[in-house]
Design brief:
alpha+beta; seven-stranded antiparallel beta sheet; 51% helix
Length: 471
């Protein structure tokens, strides 16, 4: 069912495990002027607050009890909020913990039979709903320079099929037989809890987006004589799971993504084409010793040019990850399946899509990691591109984050500053533009215009037209 959130409305997540007809019957008998929206707000707030992103560890955490201030209940329900809370307690759906040490709020949690349930989204009307909506920017530079893109984010213009979205997210995380999650000695098993947490966080991000709770950030730096935003533009649409994004609508028109395939290797290949490659005796000796290649300064330069040309051709055609799949699977052996499960939190089955997905993940991680990490991936990459590998390894010794910073700035400049903002300007905001790092999302009636502009700006900048995919 396609849903939109309007003014004075709020989208909430509700667990399928509760009997809402029973709650409504009991509520009408016990509470004067009973409002089922108040129950749904309480339950939805518990679900919403149960998963949090921990910045220090960059992980997502599930809490059995959600800390919610009584001020929240009074503001949105009224002074009789305890009647609604007590109803849920008496029906043995939830419990309430006293203040925890160092906290000023009660903890609200579901009783064990109702924990770890699948959820569904519903739009409710609740007092003060619009007070929960907000738009924040990390810096004044983001607010100033990204305003043309931020202005597209009007939550009342978005809609999504919430049932299909939940089903697709659920299937992405839980393969057959993995749900309900296993409980051991009254507690969920670690792997199952982690998977459920990711599932719930994906649904929470959808609800935040639909409710207009937006945050925007982008790095900043000196561009010419001016200090302004650079690099990737982190926005609410980009944070949505791909399963949810593909079901989004804007002004009742389906949103599609025009994606630059293997973007990071593509930008790396163009950087390598432009950089001045230093040929030294030390570098020649190092490559000869490491890869048993006979060469002199002339042959080293020729080999570098050959490697860059081959690498760029694969990047432009969209096939750069494919050439590494078999060798990586061979060198990882039985560890391949375990690595996939660890990185993606879902089961592995041997197919091209999953093998390419893991290959991409490992190669990108290797490009951005320290030289002491991902040594197996380094080995496989170096077998095909020994001179490029040596160049990257040397570059990382000056600071391993320099490579990622450089490539993200190249990507951000082309996708945000050249493509997205120019589209907005040239078409006088007639084309909605939602950047997703290496992609541009727009409505179905503007896909061709965005695709054509993609080809134009990249050919003008790099002299080639990268492979695009449209979803």
């Amino acid at each position: 069912m396609k849903q939109t959130v309007n003014k004075n409305e709020l989208m909430v997540l509700l667990p399928l495990s509760l009997d809402y007809s029973r709650i409504e019957r009991e509520g009408n008998e016990r509470i004067k002027d009973f409002d089922m929206n108040c129950i749904k707000f309480i339950v939805g707030r518990m679900i919403y607050s149960s998963v949090v992103f921990v910045k220090t560890t960059e992980t997502e955490k599930y809490n059995h009890h959600s800390l919610i201030s009584s001020k929240t209940w009074v503001k949105h329900i009224g002074k009789n909020y305890l009647d609604y809370v007590q109803l849920l307690i008496d029906l043995k759906y939830i419990n309430r913990k006293s203040y925890l040490v160092g906290e000023n709020s009660f903890g609200y949690g579901f009783l064990k039979p109702y924990r770890f349930s699948r959820v569904f989204a519903e739009v409710i009307q609740i007092k003060g709903a619009d007070d929960l909506k907000s738009t924040t920017t990390k810096t004044s530079y983001v607010k100033k320079y990204e305003k043309p893109l931020i202005d597209y984010f009007d939550y009342t213009r978005f809609s999504v099929d919430t049932n299909l979205a939940e089903n697709d997210v659920f299937e992405a995380y839980f393969m057959e037989g993995k749900f309900p999650i296993k409980i051991s000695h009254g507690e969920p098993e670690k792997e199952g809890l982690a998977t459920y947490t990711y599932y719930l966080m994906a649904m929470k991000n959808m609800v935040k987006f639909m409710n207009g709770i937006y945050s925007f950030s982008r790095g900043s730096g000196k561009v010419g004589k001016e200090y302004r935003t650079v690099g990737r533009f982190y926005n609410p649409f980009a944070r949505l799971n791909k399963e949810i994004r593909k079901l989004m609508f804007y002004d009742n028109k389906k949103i599609h993504e025009i994606d630059l395939k293997n973007s990071i290797p593509y930008f790396l290949s163009n950087y390598l084409s432009s950089v001045r490659y230093r040929v030294s005796k030390k570098r020649i000796d190092r490559i000869k010793d490491s890869f048993h290649i006979y060469m002199n300064s002339k042959s080293l330069k020729t080999l570098m040019d050959t490697e860059v040309t081959d690498f760029k051709n694969l990047c432009v055609s969209g096939g750069v990850y494919d050439v590494f799949i078999d060798r990586l699977m061979e060198i990882y052996g039985e560890e391949w399946e375990r690595t996939y499960k660890r990185l993606f939190l879902v089961d592995y089955n041997n197919c091209y899509e999953k093998n390419r997905e893991l290959t991409k993940k490992l190669l990108l991680a290797m490009f951005f990691a320290k030289n002491s990490q991902y040594e197996k991936v380094q080995q496989v990459f170096a077998e095909r591109y020994p001179v490029i590998y040596d160049f990257l390894k040397t570059k990382k010794k000056q600071g391993y984050k320099n490579i990622s910073k450089l490539l993200f700035e190249m990507e951000g400049f082309m996708i945000i500053d050249v493509l997205a903002k120019e589209l907005t300007k040239d078409y006088r905001r007639e084309i909605p533009v939602f950047p997703i790092h290496d992609s541009i999302a727009t409505t179905s009636d503007h896909v061709e215009a965005v695709k054509n502009r993609f080809n134009e700006v990249f050919y003008q900048k790099y002299g080639n037209v990268p492979t695009l995919s449209i979803t």
